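This part of the workshop introduces the protein records we will be handling. The structure tokens are whole numbers drawn from a learned vocabulary of backbone shapes. The record below serves as our worked example for the rest of this section.

===
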Amino acid sequence: MKTLKIDIILKIFTLIALGYFSYNIFLSLEYNHGKMLLLLLFGEFITMMLVIFSKSTDNRDFSLISVTLTISATFYFFFVNLNGGTALIHPIIAEIIMSIAILWQIISKLYLGRNFGLLPAYRGIVTTGPYRIVRHPIYLGYFIMHMGFLLGNFSVYNALLYALQFGRMYYEEKTLKQNKDYAQYMKKVKYRFIPFLV
């Protein structure tokens, strides 16, 4: 019963968060390059849909650091500055980078399916598709998407905000590797989220 209540609260919060982000994007469209913001919204929309339909679990990591990092990294768009950044590359190149990242996220999330969740928890292991290349392909997609957005709309503030994903990934893997099957999977797939590097 407690797990069900937590699931319902998280899912309601994600819907409220998506509505808030959509409203901010609507307000920002006339000041910023519209396509980049719409791509950003689309990537987050997929995440929200998976959260709504995710499996229930009772082994989440509710430590203060884990919860804080999860909320901050998932709902970063409450704080992200959508206007006033410096374009370091042409907007079309930024859009291409973000489009590739979103496509990678979609593929990774489809493979993960209902095993997707916000708080670190063991919901099962996926070892096919992108999960044969890196252990956290969704974080790779986030990283590329955020880099595309930052290169098209750079600010130090946004860069620091996006860095929260690294802490979130660390705590997620700390929870997952307590499972024997996942520990074996880590030996087979050596890289966390960037092939041949990290």
Residues 1-188 form a domain with the Four Helix Bundle (Hemerythrin (Met), subunit A) fold (CATH 1.20.120.1630).
